[in-house]
Amino acid sequence: MNLRLFGMNYSMWTIQARWALDHHVIRYKYTEHIPMITTPLLRIVSGKLTGNVSVPMLIADGRVYDDSWLIAAYADRNGHREKLIPFDKVDAIREWHDVCDIARKANRVIATDATAHNEDAKRENLPDFFPEFTRNVLTPLADLGVAYLGMKYDFRHSIIAEEKKKVREVLTRVRKALNGKKFFYDHFTYADITAAATLQFVRPVSDHVIKLKPAIREVFTQNDLATEFADLLEWRDGLFADQHPEPFTV
Ligand SMILES: N[C@@H](CCC(=O)N[C@@H](CS)C(=O)NCC(=O)O)C(=O)O
């Protein structure tokens, strides 16, 4: 079977989709999406010529799965390892996906804002095919990228403190539900994956698992929340060590 996954290797949504596929040892050809630049390619492969297209996007059996939840469900239907979304917990786990999505979206606002104020991160964000000597003159392009994301997700006027409050509320719920345990439920499920992926933009997981350029790592790190939720970061690192010790293949 020929599976193709489009994603952004650092993105919280891509991480959770890939983790679900990897859990079930489902192989796929991975293509890195570069906002604006590979959008036409996404449109062609998905047949979605207008409206928003987003990653992760899985093309399997001639079908398009353009949402991390749908990809996790696909992995569960087609894989043979323990279910990540067991039938008796679909609603509860979907709720964790939605609750964590609030924090992921807030994290995206915070990280994009941090990128807008960090020239090195903007330079590092430029696609790799631009040679080093062109990068300084190309930062306006990176600015355009930041403005594009701002427009797409309409967060030009968001206030960072309010976004942090949303993340804090979600992480407090996660902490309460985990209550010092290894998993949300009696075994590893997608609820653990979705919460762990959300923490990528509080403090990214080690370079060994997902390699990031230094300034990008910096703008994805929120020192205040990382200190406040150090216990959850420790849990997340343990979960990766246990359940996804190998790097995500690029
Ligand atoms: N509902 C989607 C949301 C995915 C999403 O927001 N993807 C963003 C990642 S930051 C995206 O595709 N951005 C690419 C672009 O704007 O071109 C899911 O859960 O998979």
Q: Explain this structure to me?
A:
The chain has helices at residues 12-23, 39-46, 68-78, 90-116, 119-125, 139-153, 160-178, 190-198, 214-219, 223-228, 230-243, and strands at residues 4-7, 29-32, 57-60, 63-65. With 250 residues, it is α+β, with helices and mostly antiparallel strands. Strands 2-1-3-4 form a 4-stranded mixed beta sheet. The longest helix has 27 residues, at 90-116. It is globular and about 55 Å long. The mean pLDDT is 92. The structure holds glutathione.
Ordered list of secondary-structure elements with their pairings:
Layout: E1 4-7, H1 12-23, E2 29-32, H2 39-46, E3 57-60, E4 63-65, H3 68-78, H4 90-116, H5 119-125, H6 139-153, H7 160-178, H8 190-198, H9 214-219, H10 223-228, H11 230-243
Parallel strand pairs: 1-2
Antiparallel strand pairs: 1-3, 3-4
This protein binds glutathione.
Residues 8, 11, 13, 35, 39, 54-56, 67-69, 108, 152 line the site of glutathione.
Short account of what is shown:
The protein is built from eleven helices and four strands. It has 250 residues and is an alpha+beta fold.
Keywords:
alpha+beta; 4-stranded mixed sheet; binds glutathione; 250 residues; 11 helices
